[in-house]
Structure to design on (280 residues):
């Protein structure tokens, strides 16, 4: 009992000390603080944590369907819980209206394939992005909507082909961007490695490249961008070609990569700045 008493007394002291900072002016804050301390969690963490922003994960497919989609949704939802953003997932293209999209800071195309939006839904997506929206494309987001030129520019490049799943080396080109700053400069991992119809360099800011000497079946040559970002049309776009396999979504470093991508396009300052512009 003495231990419990000391814990309670200690907690009370801590609450009073924190309250002096003005946090307890609102009674709800005081209650959250007390409940948090009793449960042993640091104040403000994991208890009624307010979401900083909303993310809509869209994974509709009309072509190839990746088994990893549910794993991707679960990973993004977990990242949202851990880092304070709300994640909704859907395969219903009817959600692409001005009113619905306005609720989200980021729209994620998670391994989408084929033609997935009608003309009105495409127009809503364009308006959403041009009014300051964020877009994240994962893996076969580049194998999507080949006949929609605006989308082609948004995602950066269209998928062309891929060899069998194998291990390869990714070189981080920009170690300061939120999606690459925690990654090893030479990142060795297993995935399905995409070749693209065109090299997006010049139109986008390349964050990472694939070393074709480290696997077989690369067709882009010595410059093979594999993740990139861009600020266009008033919005922010980020794309990674990685994320074919189910295992990818359990990799701490790949999750870090995705988290940074989402966080970067959710913010007005995305960190998507070419190295040559950093010193300005
Ligand atoms: Zn794939």
């Amino acid at each position: 009992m003495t231990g419990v008493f000391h814990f309670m007394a200690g907690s009370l002291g801590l609450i009073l000390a924190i309250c002096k900072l003005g946090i307890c002016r609102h009674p709800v804050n005081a209650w959250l603080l007390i409940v948090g301390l009793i449960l042993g969690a640091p104040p403000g963490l994991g208890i009624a944590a307010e979401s900083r922003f909303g993310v809509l994960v869209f994974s509709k497919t009309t072509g190839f369907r990746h088994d990893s989609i549910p794993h991707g949704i679960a990973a993004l939802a977990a990242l949202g819980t851990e880092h304070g953003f709300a994640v909704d997932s859907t395969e219903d293209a009817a959600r692409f209206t001005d009113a619905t999209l306005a609720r989200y800071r980021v729209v994620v195309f998670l391994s989408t394939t084929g033609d997935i939006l009608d003309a009105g839904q495409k127009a809503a997506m364009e308006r959403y992005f041009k009014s300051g929206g964020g877009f994240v494309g994962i893996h076969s987001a580049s194998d999507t909507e080949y006949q929609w030129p605006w989308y082609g520019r948004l995602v950066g490049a269209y998928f062309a082909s891929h060899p069998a799943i194998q291990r390869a080396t990714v070189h981080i080109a920009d170690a300061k961007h939120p999606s690459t700053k925690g990654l090893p400069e030479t990142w060795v991992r297993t995935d399905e490695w995409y070749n693209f119809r065109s090299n997006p360099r010049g139109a986008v800011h390349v964050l990472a490249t694939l070393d074709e000497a480290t696997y077989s079946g690369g067709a882009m040559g010595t410059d093979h961008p594999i993740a990139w970002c861009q600020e266009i049309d008033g919005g922010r776009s980020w794309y990674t070609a990685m994320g074919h396999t189910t295992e990818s979504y359990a990799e701490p470093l790949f999750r870090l990569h995705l988290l940074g991508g989402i966080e970067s396009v959710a913010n007005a300052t995305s960190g998507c700045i070419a190295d040559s512009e950093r010193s300005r």
